[in-house]
Structures are given as C-alpha cells and as structure tokens.
C-alpha cells in the first residue's frame, strides 16, 4: 500500500495541541494590519480550536500524518 501525500498548505495551517485538539490560526493575518486595532492584531496570533466536525474530517484526509 503506497503512502498518502500530505497537503502541505494544510499541514502548515493546522496543528494538534497537547490534549489532541485540532487548532488553527485566524485568517487575514498577512497584510493590511496597520489599520487594525492592537487588540485585533493580537487575536491573529492566537490559536483557535476547530469545532466543526466536517472541517476536522477534511483536515484528516488532507494531512493524515499530522497527528501528534
């Protein structure tokens, strides 16, 4: 059985926490940050939990070796 290729963009965007939760960053981080407030810019650096089951399933298919 051949190995499954990992979708590289998915593996860079998602991580598993120590307790096994799938975590993501917020979108909109890369540019136009100078017109945003300090609080909003700080929220871009936080990791948020993925709660949607369909999204978790998609990530598992795209990056099967991403597990902790």
How many domains comprise the coordinates? 1
**Number of DSSP helices?**
3
Determine Rg (CA atoms, Å). 14 Å
Q: What integer is the average pLDDT?
A: 91
User: From N to C, what is the helix and strand string?
Assistant: HEEHEH
Q: SS-based structural class?
A: alpha+beta
Which features would summarize this protein structure in a list?
3 strands, 3-stranded antiparallel β-sheet, elongated, 34% helix, alpha+beta, 12% strand, Factor Xa Inhibitor, 68 residues
Characterization of the model:
By secondary structure, the protein is an alpha+beta fold. It has three helices and three strands, in the order αββαβα. Strand 1 (14-16) and strand 2 form a beta hairpin. The mean pLDDT is 91.
Write the layout of secondary structure elements.
Layout: H1 8-13, E1 14-16, E2 22-24, H2 38-44, E3 48-49, H3 53-62
Antiparallel strand pairs: 1-2, 2-3
TL;DR of this structure?
Helix content is 34%, strand content 12%. With 68 residues, it is of the alpha+beta class.
